[in-house]
What does this fold into?
Amino acid sequence: MKTATFNPNGGPIIAEVTPGSAAVGSYTILLWEANANLVVMRRDGNFINTADDAYTLPEPNEHNDGRIVECIATVVITPPVDTYNVDLVIRQDGNEIGGDSASGSDASGTVTVDLFVQLNGGGA
It folds into this structure.
């Protein structure tokens, strides 16, 4: 699993999802509690409207240590484009501190990906 090391004393941690070339689709972002089957935060969105696809994780930051950010995204492959790329990016203080992505080629019409990033509060 990918990791994102954050500064517990830094600014808010932000999770953002982008659809790449397949710009139509929807997603769910889940923040899982460390070592538990408990969802701490859930955000749903789509790539169709103009709303921001970036979400601030709960504070204080130190509570996010060990938590897992999961993004389940479904994108529509619209010809002539037959490729997709979905990115989950974790940022803090304007810097990318981690992420996960999936990309490929598919002519079936839709693709669903599941991305995971574990948060590590060991940064300074």
The beta strands are 2-5, 13-18, 25-32, 39-46, 54-56, 68-76, 83-92, 95-105, 110-120. The two ends are 22 Å apart (CA to CA). The first strand starts at residue 2 and ends at 5.
